[in-house]
Amino acid sequence: MDTLRSARRRLLAVGLAWAVAGAACSAPERVDAKRAAPADRRREELRDQLRGTLGERYDVPLAAATIEELARGSNFYDMLCRACHGPTGKGNGRSARMLMIPPPDLTDPSTAAFFSDRAKLQIIAEGIAGSPMIGWSRMLEEQDQIAVLHFMSTLVREPQSP
Hints:
Elements: H1 2-26, H2 39-54, H3 67-85, H4 109-114, H5 117-126, H6 142-153
Helix pairs in contact: 3-6, 5-6
């Protein structure tokens, strides 16, 4: 119950932060050559950067999700991620069309497999420099960031068989 109360208090602060983040997400930025690079190259560069940042922890698996954690992650996703990533994670949220760099399709199995869970957790916590993806480490405690990550993993659709 304390965790829920604590989360509710943090979410009051998130309301203001969300308004600021929404403005930042929709604000046009000058696109430099690096951000204008093809999406695949940007993604590979980010993965290399995250491997360097996380070192040996890059491939360390996270503990399995609990039902309570998935429910908490779903609530946080709806409040913090849905506007850009969309209700089902397809990257088609109401704010997505205003972004200079579109959100990834979190339902795509190849997108989901591209980064390790630790790398995805780092992205949730710290954001992605030069993109509209902000970090949530100041709003969410690590266990809540993990809950969001676990919930996002439920959005991945099954790979299509040939």
